[in-house]
Amino acid sequence: MAKKSSQKSLPASLQLGRAVEWPDSPEKAKLDRVPNPQAGTNYLVRFTAPEFTSICPVTGQPDFAHLVIDYVPGQWLLESKSLKLYVASFRNHGAFHEDCTVMIGKRIAAEIKPKWLRIGGYWYPRGGIPIDVFWQTGKLPKDMWVPDQGVAPYRGRG
Known about the structure:
This protein is of the alpha+beta class and 158 residues long. The chain is 16% helix and 30% strand. The protein has 2 helices and 6 strands; from the N terminus they run E-E-E-E-H-H-E-E. It has helices at 80-88, 97-112; strands at residues 33-35, 45-55, 62-72, 76-78, 116-126, 129-136. Strand 2 and strand 3 form a beta hairpin. The protein is globular, with a radius of gyration of 17 Å. The mean pLDDT is 91.
């Protein structure tokens, strides 16, 4: 007997599998979660957004970052399409690097309640200074392997 697709049991309210409008602000963006089929197992999930953009709240100029989000799921997984839409909602959002990075980490943590989450925001230089911002929830569960985020410190042309 063929196994039923787990997608058929997902709520119709998910953005997954249908056309949705791009949210024009982080506040309007919806983050979806789906049940974790491996909830009794500790493992790491990594999302990388190497072309994150937002707007400087002072100058209105674009800011660019490479975001790396690592989390150990609990009962819920973060649905990736909704994360893409959420990340894209920052394109016209004016906020400092620190605010964007921490806001994203806190919002994801609130939505999916992971056992542990960290976000690294590796911001490209403007005015000659790159800014790296890191935030995490609590302590990493025991015996978890977490690879390096793989983003080298900014070195310019050196």
